[in-house]
Amino acid sequence: MKKPSIPNPSALTRTGATSRFIRNAAAWSLAAASALSGANAWAQQIVRIAQLEPLSGPFQSQGETNVHTLQAAVDEFNAHNKDIQFEISVFDAQGKAQEALNIFRQATERGIQYFTGGGSSAIVSGLIEAVNTYNERNPGREVLYLNHQAIDPDFTESRCSFWHFRFDPHVHMRMFALTSYITRDAAVKKVYLINQDYSFGQQVEASAKRYLGSMRPDIAIVGEERHPIGRTKDFAPYVAKIRATGADTVITGNFGQDLVLLIKAAKDAGLNVKFYTYYGNALGAPTAVGAAGVDRLRLVGTWETNAMSPRMKAIHDGFKAKYPKTDIFHSGVIEVVGLMGDAVRKAGSVEPKRVAFALEGLKTQGAFGEVEMRAGDHQLLAPLFIQTFEPVDGKKVKHGIEGLPLGFRTDAKIAATETAPVMACQMKRPSR
Fold first, then answer.
1. Backbone angles phi, psi at 225, to 5 degrees
2. Beta carbons of 122 and 388 less than 8 angstroms apart
3. Which residues, 6 or more positions from 287, have their beta carbon under 8 angstroms from its beta carbon?
4. H helices of 184-331, where?
5. C-alpha distances in angstroms, 30 versus 26, 102, 183?
6. Which residues of 340-375 are buried (b: 16+ CB within 10 A; e: fewer)?
């Protein structure tokens, strides 16, 4: 099949559960810093990153998993690279844009020059603008934003910035891969779209309609629904609407609580449809659907536990040893560590502008194959996987998820070159 063109479309200390992340971050930074006492301390490059995640509120599980995944990736990197070390400071952005901006201001005052996390695309949008403004006002003291998960295409298209790098395939790239697979299934006749009502969810909806329309015009879109992000407690009314349309397939970009509650409501109502998701492998969704999701819960993603390299296995095993009931659900945060390590080594410096130029066009062995940080728009090109929820059999499904005897079988691997978007960025670059 010929691929169509992808369209252009706080306080820093908390109490309770969140405080343990601050304590862990302090201990983690101390462990990394202890390496400085060695004989070669003068030669080390220390990459200090502020990680802003929703560690309280409806998307707490998402933030916690991102913190744990970055920790596992940094632990593995620091153990094998004594010339470069990562130090991470973790902050609770609470899933609130203003809180994230407050943390950004305080972290820059402390001299931190690299930022990641944020939570939703809405929050990351504000952080990208804050980074751009800060750098305009502080030449010679620039900072970089390392976006590991917010996948609104505009961030590397109409709003691309030299100071922003995305380490995860965006909405259109994922949807092209997903719909390419869906269109091979003759049983798919009626599709219902349900998404969170903000920029990301709107992009998922628009992208699904565009690609389904071009690849399988015979498929009917029988419903489109947007709901408030993180505020819906009962999805039963939405499930009733889906049932009433006679849909056989649901496509959703929902994540965290919004996906878990949607899937749980569908299971409770006995809704017999296939769910094609972006985040069905994480944050309680597999547990919510259980055996009812076998052969019906599917996803497009970047993480593949059935084909791990020695490096990925070390990161995965380190993660699972500490958090056996939680799972890594995407590789973007891991790609941050690998690519940044290579870029710092290439630049011979941790100065953000030099590292940014070193990142541009950088190719390296990523989590599951070669990845490239495209110079023209700072969008990572990486493999994607289409997967289906199935019982663990030790062959096609090697690992259970969330402590279940169920995991994800890989149906297709889509090469990075197959989903590379049309260049739509006109970037203003600083002088070297």
1. -135, 135
2. no
3. 402, 403, 404
4. 199-215, 236-245, 257-268, 285-289, 310-322
5. 6, 24, 51
6. bbbbbeebeebebbbbbbbbbebeeebbbeebbbbe
Where b means 16+ CB within 10 Å and e means fewer, 378-410 reads bbbbbbbbbbbbbebeeeebeebbbebebbbbb
3-state secondary structure of 356: helix
For the segment 130-150, the average pLDDT, to the nearest whole number, is: 97
How far is C-alpha 25 from the geometric centre of its chain's CA atoms? 21
CA distances from 47 to 74, 181, 225, 406 (A): 11, 40, 43, 38
What is the model's pLDDT at position 139? 95
**Count, residues in the chain:** 432
pTM of model > 0.90: no
Distance CA 403, CA 392 (A): 11
Distance CA 194, CA 225 (A): 5
Structural domains in the chain, CATH included, are: 16-169+308-381 (3.40.50.2300), 172-301 (3.40.50.2300)
DSSP helix/strand/coil, 387: strand
pLDDT (tens digit per residue) in 364-390: 999 999 999 999 999 999 999 999 999
Helix or strand (DSSP H, E) at 341 = helix 332-347
The region that residue 181 occupies, defined by phi over 0 for left and psi between -120 and 50 for alpha, beta otherwise, is alpha
Sequence-ordered alpha helix ranges (H) in 40-187:
60-80, 97-109, 121-137, 171-182
Residue listed under structure tokens 């399988």: 216
CA distance 335 to 366: 6
